[in-house]
Design goal:
157 residues, mainly alpha, 7 helices
Amino acid sequence: MFRKSLRRLLAIDDPPERTALAFSIGIFIAFSPFLGLHTILATFLAFVFRFNKVAIYTGTFINNPFLTLVPIILASYAIGALVMGRPLRLPEEGMQLLKEPHLLTASYWLELWHHAWDILLPFSIGGMALSVVCSLAAYPLTLGLLRRRRKPGEGHL
């Protein structure tokens, strides 16, 4: 699926700079901590800025639930924890809540909310850091690839 999207990305008639920008914004969205909103954000930005949808979706769908979601979440949390000076291991209280859920009690949900910040804050900080770094790296790499694949005077492959 990714190879097919990549081939379509390389065949887009938009200028390489614009295609690379759309792809790198998709990468930014993919690594962002806004889980569940990635496709909505990509669609919104594609329509508002008239980005090529193939380019922005290809970048966005780098983060997919079958292959890359878990490593991205773990890397986001780890980077955020390092930035915040926190240990990489989740606090024992939070782990206990996850191991023994009491879903029908209000006290469980209050305690979970209290400890959620031990996870959500580092995850959010790390996710935003990964978003910025990966999207900034994606732009020149994609632009170079697109320029190499398109010879001067050619509109498509």
